[in-house]
Specification:
The chain is α+β, with helices and mostly antiparallel strands. The chain contains 4 helices and 4 strands, in the order H-E-E-E-H-H-E-H. Strands 3-2-1-4 form a 4-stranded mixed β-sheet, covered by helices on one side. The longest helix has 17 residues.
Length: 120
């Protein structure tokens, strides 16, 4: 399978998920994306098309921890994201896994965000 076909399949999975998952001001969409080196998470209000909270492993404080895009990094970032979201007044979200399978680091991030106090 070539990389163009893999990218197309990933995009199709993203679209299939996004048809069902929609964020509002009361319950924004928590989108998480893992690259080979970093983790990106954001709470999005799809009604207004705005990002309410954003956090990544490139953040100055988290960069000192040298987080990687693995299970340990996902757990740390999930807890940190939940704290930042709660500080912004967000308590409930809908989870968008961005086409990634719900196991391993994606599941660890979601569980850590739940432990941090987010409801989804």
């Amino acid at each position: 399978m070539n990389t163009i076909n893999k990218a197309r399949l990933l995009q199709n999975r993203r679209w299939r998920i996004r048809k069902k998952v929609f964020g509002t001001a009361v319950r924004p969409r928590l989108s998480v994306r893992f690259t080979t080196k970093h983790i990106y998470a954001q709470a999005i209000n799809d009604d207004a098309g705005t990002t309410l909270v954003f956090l990544s492993s490139l953040d100055a404080v988290l960069r000192q921890l040298k987080l990687k895009a693995n299970i340990a990094g996902a757990k740390s970032l999930g807890v940190a994201f939940a704290e930042k979201a709660k500080a912004a007044g967000i308590t409930a979200v809908v989870f968008d896994r961005s086409g990634a399978p719900y196991h391993g680091k994606v599941k660890t991030f979601a569980d850590a965000a739940r432990e941090g106090g987010l409801k989804f």
